[in-house]
Amino acid sequence: MSMNTQGRPTAPAAVSTPVIDTVSGSRGLLQREDLLFEIGTPETTGVDLPTPRGLKDRLGGVKRKADTGLAGLSEPQAVRHYMRLSQKNYAIDLGLFPLGSCTMKHNPRLNEKMARLPGFADIHPLQPQATVQGALELIDELATWLKTLTGMPSVAMSPKAGAHGELCGMLAIRQALIARGEGESRKRVLVPESAHGTNPATAVQCGFIVDEIKADKRGRVDMADLKSKLARTDDIAGIMLTNPNTCGLFETDIKDIADLIHAAGGYFYCDGANFNAIVGRVRPGDLGVDAMHINLHKTFSTPHGGGGPGSGPTVFSEALAPFAPVPFVIKDEDSFFRLVEQTEGAAKDSFGRMVAFHGQMGMFVRALTYMLSHGADGLKQVAEDAVLNANYIQARLKHVMTPAFEGFCMHEALFSDAFTADGIETIDIAKALIDEGYHPMTMYFPLVVHGAMLIEPTETESKAELDRFCDALESIARRAAQGDETLKGAPYLAPAKRLDETRAARKPVLKWTAPLPEQIAAE
Amino acid sequence: MRYLPLTPEDRASMLATIGAKSAEDFYTDVPKSARLKAKIAGLPDHQGELAVERHMMKLAAKNRSASSGPFFVGAGAYKHHVPASVDMIIQRSEFLTTYTPYQPEIAQGTLQTLFEFQTQVSALTAMDVANASMYDGSTACAEAAVMAARVTKRRKVILSGGLHPHYAAATRLLCEAQGLTVMQLPVAIDGEGELGKSVDGETACVIGQSPNVFGTVTDLTSVAKSAHEKGALLVSVFTEAVSLGLVMPPGEMGADIAAGEGQSIGNGLNFGGPYVGLFACREKLVRQMPGRLCGETVDADGHRGFVLTLSTREQHIRRDKATSNICTNSGLCALAFTAHMTLLGGKGLKQLAELNHEAACELADTLGAMKGVEVLTPRFFNEFAIRTPVDAEAVLAMLDEAGVVGGVRASRLYPRDHLGDVILVAATECTTPDDIAAYAAALKEII
Predict the structure, then answer these.
(1) Residue-level pLDDT at B308
(2) How far is CA A7 from the centre of its chain?
(3) A46 FRET partner, CA 20 to 30 A, in A93, A200, A401, B287?
């Protein structure tokens, strides 16, 4: 054994690893962390506020009766609490995050820096417009990018997320039908069965009735089924179609679909969740689309933040543009950027207001920063590399897994579970990926493919990362094909084992409750 | 290009593995007429960090930030101090760059913070259960209205005259799209208490706000009683979450659903978004709630863990039968809220609320003592309405010249209600005695 001069060993001794159960509950770098309510007290605080002077209040007796009793932590405790929790999360910054339909690409840090400039982060939505001309100009500039990239004449910036953008598009369609005097008669919206759940949910939120259309053997809209659903046209409001679709395929008949819907008197809503595959290469405006939301948090790299916030600007064709929501920005002749906030004048046909204020400014700053960084040339390359990476994964895995459809894919590769042995399911493959250091792919979606595994690598992965991922998934796939039962227990190396979702739903515990005194005494 | 790792050699070797000649091969399904040969015209090419930074900083410099001088704008968004550690926590990659926690084994960090968020929101609103956030207060309010219609199976929604007009507009839009009838009561500075009189046997819910858009705080207990007697629900709305440290919260007034804006805690102004919608209700209504819920459970080893639960309400499971179409919410803003609330603690929150209230009291005393200025709000927390002897737009423009951002003219929110001489004024813990003195001095020159 080597020693330094004090006799401290400087190389590991040869001992076999015992099973280690720690007293603390922590395991090396992975710290155990209780709920903050079990650590702090209501008196503990991590802020130093001045003492109130004790003025007579003006609340007229409308005072809170019982204190919140919420626990607080000092700053070092709070920072440590959230750092320890952060260690239990997977993230793009740690590795490939191949969730299909989610476009988990790198989130550039310049975006974060720009969003924190006081000129953007510290301005109020209702301060005088003369004091926020740069903010309004930024919204106008981003709107120009979005209109140019989609080839559409108009964009509503206020929707707060993708599903909110869908709502925006469908409300515009509703308003257009009302303007035609057909608001009551045209209620049927066609939605492919492969659609994101938000599509049918959105249509119903707007008072429409959903009529499902089937997928064909190639994973596209079944044109025969579509035509049969259009045998009657006087009740058709429109279609909601994702393109590229949720199978990761371009809808080859998209122009015919648009023509059929328009001939039936309906409108074409396109779900733009998968815009990353075609940005800079195909403009939805050239495909007959009437409305489409754009997820800035997918295609344009604003961070997903563990579930949000997003941003869902929605572009419109000439036919729907007059019905777009307020507010929007217009540039006056004297180059003054002005907010149109009321449904009058330029917005007299607008369907109204969806939300307080002007949309997700913080996301606008990040998205524009991203667009300027890539430029028109870079965005075209984004789409090409995203599609290339997905096809590379498909090519590398098609011998061990079952591609759902023949031919090249777009930005995501879709496999069915046909290759697995009896008893091994998609979820087992997904969870085994965790042990290999990866976030699982999207599983059991789209619904049209049995045991679906939808893999979207995005363009921000290097070939070396893709190869490592493919090696890992290939080995898991082989084990799945051989019926390796150990997959059923995966993950083994994650901060938690598989969780009991049935128990959580049966008797929901949705908040922490202080233990009763007798419970404390019993411990 | 700095965000694209593939080299030309990588691309060539990958194409060979795939068996494609070029990327063009992947786009053959696109109709020929829609395939762009060249890059899209009319947009600049890629730029380095420095050039992009210059461009953005130039735009930012054209805006006046709230911290750059005396600032009194509220009406649904508030200038508060956010501790430095909050921004540091939400910039942790593990929180910032992760997805919705659908794989709980590697998302316990997000899930536990959501569980803490739900617990904090429940306590703050004094309600039984809270969800894992909505987009913002206005959409939370709209969702509360349609939820009340589902629960009661009734089709009429009544909006108070003090409900923030943007919230009213968003709510009216969603309700009318679903065929509900919306009754908007006339604009009133102090009308929330009268809401109960409008309830009838057809009413799904009444929506009242405290503090309301004019700053008036109101005990809605009697409104809740009137609503419940007729089988209707009370939706209690707030736009200033800090107020609940001091003001009677929805749960103490008998509200069935609480919907509000959480921006004030942990989140900056950001010109209106992203913010964080708070949504809470009575336990028996939980299965009609919109949005994600995080629940406690155990893992295969019996250790406590958290998962998204009651998903059968949600669009990805129930599709057209879902309670809402919401998917992405305000996760990271909810984390900011939770981190700030954790730093405050119950005692700190109350103290913060007191400081806000005292700043507003001092401001009201100072402005109200001026000749020709009338404070219109009878009971308030940290904002109130004043009437000025001169047109509000002119007053604010002149204050602006003196470097004071003096509030929101009521006519911007209510263009048709003859409120041309009314200004909504807010103060927070950021408001200093010097700010108040500057306001008074500038206003004196004008009126």
Answers:
(1) 97
(2) 55
(3) A93
Which residues on B lie below 8 Å from A67 (Cβ)? 346-347, 350
Number of independent structural domains in chain B: 2
Confidence at A5, pLDDT banded by 50, 70, 90: confident
Residues B103 and B170 in one domain: yes
Q: Within 10 A of A56 (CB to CB), how many other CB atoms are there?
A: 7
Report yes or no: B245 and A52 within 8 Å, Cβ to Cβ.
no
* Nearest residue in A to B90, CA atom: A305
pLDDT tens per residue across span B57-112: 999 999 999 999 999 999 999 999 999 999 999 999 999 999 999 999 999 999 99
**Residue pLDDT, tens place only, B176-185:** 999 999 999 9
Structure tokens at A438: 């990866």
> Is residue B400 assigned to a domain?
yes
β-strands A267-271, A236-242 pairing: parallel
Phi, psi angles (nearest 5°) of residue A271:
-80, 115
Residues A429/B50, Cβ–Cβ less than 8 Å: no
Question: Phi and psi dihedrals of B148, rounded to 5?
Answer: -60, -40
Alpha-carbon distances of A492 from A94, A219, A433, rounded to whole Å: 19, 35, 11
* Size (chain A), residues: 523
Contact B441, B370 (CB under 8 A): no
Q: Are B388 and B447 in contact (CB under 8 A)?
A: yes
Q: Is position B103 within any domain?
A: yes
Is B277 a member of any domain?
A: yes
Cα separation, B159 vs B175, whole angstroms: 12
CB A499 within 8 A of CB B105: yes
End-to-end Cα, chain A, rounded Å:
47
Element (DSSP H or E) covering residue A190: strand A188-192
Report field, pTM of the whole predicted structure over 0.90: yes
Asked if the interface predicted TM-score (ipTM) of this complex is over 0.90, the answer is yes
CATH code for the domain of B383: 3.90.1150.10
pLDDT category, A1, cuts 50, 70, 90?
low
Query: Hunting for tokens 């739903």 — which residue is that?
Result: A505
- Residue A309: cis peptide before it, omega within 30 degrees of 0: yes
pLDDT tens string B257-293:
999 999 999 999 999 999 999 999 999 999 999 999 9
Position B242, amino acid: V
Residue from B32, B55, B63 to probe the interface with A (highest A Cβ count within 10 Å) = B63
Q: Are residues B399 and B417 in the same domain?
A: yes
Alpha carbon B153 to chain centroid distance? 27
pLDDT over 90, % of chain A: 93
Nearest residue in chain B measured CA to CA from A508: B295
User: Hey, of A21, A38, A68, which one would you mutate to test binding to chain B, going by the most B CBs within 10 A of its CB?
Assistant: A68
